[in-house]
Known about the structure:
The chain is of the alpha/beta class and about 180 residues long. It is about 55% helix and about 10% strand. Strands 2-3-1-4-5 form a five-stranded parallel β-sheet, sandwiched between helices.
Amino acid sequence: MNRKKHVILVGMPGSGKSNMGFFLSKLMRMPFIDTDYYITVKEQKSIAKIFAEHGEDCFRKIEQQILLEIIEKDPSVIATGGGMPCFYNNMDIMNEFAVTVYLELTPEKLFEHLKTDTKRPLLKGKTGEELTDYINISLEQRKSFYEKADITIQAYDKTPAQLATELVKNISGFMANMTQ
């Protein structure tokens, strides 16, 4: 029996998971869930506030609880926070219950997307050089988790709508190969 009923998007912050996930959910006629937004609604506080009040470890535990809750729901397109796949056994859980997709972007493109971001607690107050270092170090640490995804899609120089259209074809092909 195929247990992969969801589509879960993983990748670095700034890779376009939320934007592309929205378009993908429309094309696949599935609900869209952004785990960071889901957490803020459920916890009734911002991720930055959770980090400030309770620390990253507490946040990562909340992320896993949310993941376990979401996979029990009806099939959905799910955009994860950039670190979610890298803690506990989250990537293994995702691979069991979803077609996982790694949105791969170059460090330079990530920098372009993140240089004006003021909302993410791990990026707050970083200079350009510090942001570049953060991106390179985080990508190095996280890439092995992201690369466990069923599908890797190059997210360079494409709109979220173009990526979603391309991904629908990739997911269909992946699912067809699973049933053979």
